Structure prediction request, 347 residues.
Amino acid sequence: MHNVGILGYGVYVPKYRIRVSDIAAVWGKNPTEIENSLGLKEKSVAAIDEDAVTQAFEAARRALQYASCNPSELEVCLVGSESHPYAVNPTSTIVGQFLGMSHNYIAADLEFACKAATAGLIAAAGLIAAGKVTKGLVIGSDTAQSKPHDILEYTAASASAAFILAKNTGRTIANLLDFSSFSSDTPDFWRRDGVRFPSHGGRFTGEPAYFTHVEQAAKMLLTKLKMKPVDFDYCIFHMPNGKFPRLVARRLGFEAQQLVQSLIVDKIGNPYSASSLLGLSAVLDVAKPNKLIFMVSYGSGAGSDAFVFKTTQYISKKRDKKSFVSELIDNKKYISYIEYLKYGRKI
Prediction:
């Protein structure tokens, strides 16, 4: 896979935030206990006129600017989400039309809970490596849904991240060295067709679901490449809350300093399919050339995709055009729970 790399990336984070303490107060819960339990204090909320499509467009637009790429050059558009606005009508073609892509491209909407977009990375990378296409756009975008008074209400967030993959011709900022996937039928999280909010298995979502799949995918890739956690400069793990990525990193043998740059969950919550890709974007915002990056996504149902990237010398030349993840996160406006009902739930 060394001939495939990241040409550009972009992110979008809505400016609205709601504090975990404000949600807890509505339901008579102890804010401190909730914050300590989940490891975060606030989350991002999409505005009333925002959805997975508008967020995807914003992230993709920024990725094209970063890559200095014309939309007509893209031959693939894959959008991973579990909050596509339409049950029948693809997000990918709407985004492609808004961006001004030609009609000669492969389009598909992907679903696999929070790892839908990383499955897209593998698919696009495979097409490029096989010589079938030269450039592809992959987006993870979610306005995550949660039932009122459910634990997910404190973490389910909104954001998007977009990546343009291409053949390695000297202009990629990070190259994909390899990947692995670990999948099983583990229904820790689900939503039947026509049901508004998802359900989950509570504590069951942790040990036999998230940790098993993330750890197994990670170990498979480390074994495949004959590498160890100490070999990497950065690591990224899917962030359903503030505790899980820290714990799984420690269990795998990674140090806190390898993880800290990617922890966007602390400030915006869990934007589902955009989570691990936002973490990767935050790392690429600061990474210097020749740095090794280890990333593992997770999607309920269940599965994990693990990747190893290595930054190139070209990343330094693009530094002035970075997507400024931290600036988007810091550009925020707090809203009340009533406003959250209006903006976050579109009612």
Notes: The mean pLDDT is 93. Residues 174-317 form a domain with the Peroxisomal Thiolase; Chain A, domain 1 fold (CATH 3.40.47.10).
